[in-house]
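Memo to structure team: turn this sequence into C-alpha cells by end of day. - J.P.
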Amino acid sequence: KCSICITSKNSCITSDRGIDKILKGNGINSAFIEENNIKLLKKDGKYSNMKGFIGGACFIFDNKFVLFGDIEKLESKGKITNHLRKHNLELIDFKGLEVYDYGGGIVF
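Reply from structure team:
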C-alpha cells in the first residue's frame, strides 16, 4: 500500500517503477510518479528524514481522491491531476498544508 494508490478497479498511481511496469503489462492504467515532497512522521510524532509515499498520503472515497495536504506542494501534481481527470475522480486536498503520509485512510 505504501507506494501505490488504487484509484479504480483498473487504475492506480505508484512511485515504484517495478510495480508500474508489472501493472501496465497486465493492462492496468498506472501513473508513475517520482515525489520527494510527501512528509513522513515517526511514531513519536516527530518528523522523519525519510520521504513518505503516495499510498499513505491519500485515499479514495465516493469518486473522491482525498490527499492529506495541498496538491500544489507536490512536484508530481500535474501527473496526479491528469490521472484523476482521466478516471473521473474529484480532488479533495487541504490548501496550504504540507502533504503527509499517515498510512492511508479507513472509510466505514
